[in-house]
Write a structure and sequence with these properties.
This protein is α/β, with parallel strands linked by helices. Helix content is 41%, strand content 17%. It has 19 helices and 15 strands. Helix 2 crosses helix 3 and helix 3 packs across helix 4. The protein is globular and about 95 Å long. The protein starts with 11 loop residues before the first helix and ends in an 8-residue tail after the last helix.
């Protein structure tokens, strides 16, 4: 061995010529790998100066592979959702249907008529795509798709009520995920907030007494992510629309549904969630909701309503800043077609999970338990509840069967599962790590059942 420990380190080009690094260089590029290798060798020299033994060349190769992958591997990764939360905001919300994925791929890999009128042979509008399906399914006169529901609300307020008063019940001044609040959105739209009623009780007369010549809009926000119970009262859309139409000139009514659903939630043991078409039929002039929650489509904000209002929104300059791309429109159209065919509960993953029977879920959990027991893992089964999520139906759950794995350090196991490739997200229930079959796709079961023993015993799969 050389007396000079620095001479045991390879040169930069010698390190990069190692066969084990060929795939890494092909994947991330020679320049990127060279920069990380240079930094790695600098760190190794600093370690030698501090008295440490120089690493072997094989150790350097492994360290370099880890550094490059950590530095340049995509940060957005697919995960296995074993939490039981169907529309999980932190995990990407609703999964797309096979038809939606195909539609996105087709339009992304080819030129399209995004803004081209095929019949007229000239420039067209992207805003016509999905509009016919949305109006047919909801009964609205017209529709507009933007990039999310916050944008939909902001655009509507700015167009209809900038500089004017917007009347809303105090019990509907909600905060959505990420700290965004209805009063903040109102302020950004240059509208003036007018609160009426109290947190728990608001009557029609409260709105009527607040209306002035400066009133530009009546706003009703669905309490989709919380509930006020007990001594409560609120004004429905039908009554609110009736009041607005008695005024001269009539005052527009905006109903922000948040999640938005086209299907009735009650057949699945859940409380009634206002359907989009019900709000339109009740007289709302404008209805806004998300495309990627209970609708089960891509991230989008949908605005439905009277044609005169939607036409104004389409002409609003801010609409361009909120517009969606061709892949979003393609996925949304494919999603809406499932509702048109009456096959949403079979095709759309979120509704397939919502409609999954307790018996089918129990059978899947038993199959998991048998497979893990054969591998020497002690687990138990217990009744539990799955949440719909996505800021909808708060406090309500769907019956499920949980696979429970008790360990001395449950949060350590959760961390190991998150470090697995692909990451697995579970939860702690009654001091045990709980896995809910409702949100685990059938094709993910083999991966999950192989990962649990390896994570439990500390042999987590390395990141790829």
């Amino acid at each position: 061995m050389s007396a000079n420990p620095y001479r045991q380190l390879p040169g930069l080009d010698a390190l990069l010529s190692r066969p084990a690094l060929r795939e890494l260089i092909a994947r991330f590029g020679r320049d990127s790998v060279r920069d990380e290798a240079r930094s790695l060798l600098d760190d190794a020299r600093a370690a030698i100066r501090s008295g440490q033994i120089p690493p072997s060349q094989d150790e350097l190769v492994v360290r370099l592979q880890d550094r490059v992958r950590n530095a340049f591997a995509p940060s957005l990764l697919p995960v296995i959702n074993a939490t039981g939360v169907i529309v999980h905001t932190n995990l990407g919300r609703a999964l797309l249907s096979d038809a939606a994925k195909r539609a996105m791929m087709e339009v992304a890999s080819s030129y399209s008529n995004l803004e081209y009128d095929l019949a007229a042979g000239k420039r067209g509008s992207r805003y016509v795509h999905a509009e016919a399906l949305l109006t047919r399914l909801t009964g609205a006169e017209a529709a507009l798709v933007v990039n999310n529901n916050a944008a939909a609300v902001n655009l509507t307020l700015r167009t209809l009520a900038a500089g004017q008063e917007v009347i809303i019940s105090r019990g509907e001044l909600v905060e959505i995920g990420g700290g965004f609040r209805i009063p903040d959105i109102l302020a950004q739209s240059s509208a003036v907030l007018v609160e009426v009623g109290t947190t728990n009780r608001t009557r029609l007369v409260d709105y009527e007494n607040a209306i002035t010549e400066h009133t530009g809009l009546l706003l009703k926000v669905h309490q989709s992510n919380y509930r006020i119970i007990g001594f409560t009262e609120e004004v429905g859309i039908s009554a609110l629309a009736g009041l607005a139409r008695r005024k001269s000139p009539p005052i527009p009514v905006l109903h922000d549904l948040g999640s938005g659903t086209l299907l009735d939630t009650r057949p699945y043991g859940l409380a009634y969630e206002p359907r989009v078409q019900d709000s339109v039929a009740a007289g709302a002039d404008v209805v806004t909701f998300s495309g990627d929650k209970l609708l089960g489509g891509p991230q989008a904000g949908v605005i439905l309503g009277r044609k005169a209002i939607i036409d104004r929104l389409k002409r609003q300059p801010l609409t361009r800043a909120f517009r969606v791309d061709k892949t979003t429109l393609a996925a949304l159209q494919a999603t809406l077609m499932a509702y048109l065919r009456g096959t949403a509960t079979e095709e759309i993953p979120a509704w397939r999970m919502i409609s999954a029977s307790a018996e089918a879920l129990a059978q899947r959990a038993r199959t998991w338990a048998d497979a893990l027991t054969r591998q020497g893992i002690r687990v138990t089964l217990a009744p539990g509840g799955s949440a719909v999520g996505g800021g909808s139906l708060p406090g309500q759950t769907l019956p499920t069967t949980l696979l429970l794995l008790r360990t001395e350090h449950p949060h350590r196991l959760l961390a190991a599962l998150r470090a697995h490739t692909p990451p697995i997200i579970a939860r702690v229930e009654e001091d045990a790590v709980a896995f809910d079959p409702r949100t685990v796709l059938p094709e993910q079961e083999t991966i999950l059942l192989a990962a649990i023993p390896s994570c439990l015993h500390g042999t987590v799969s390395p990141a790829k």
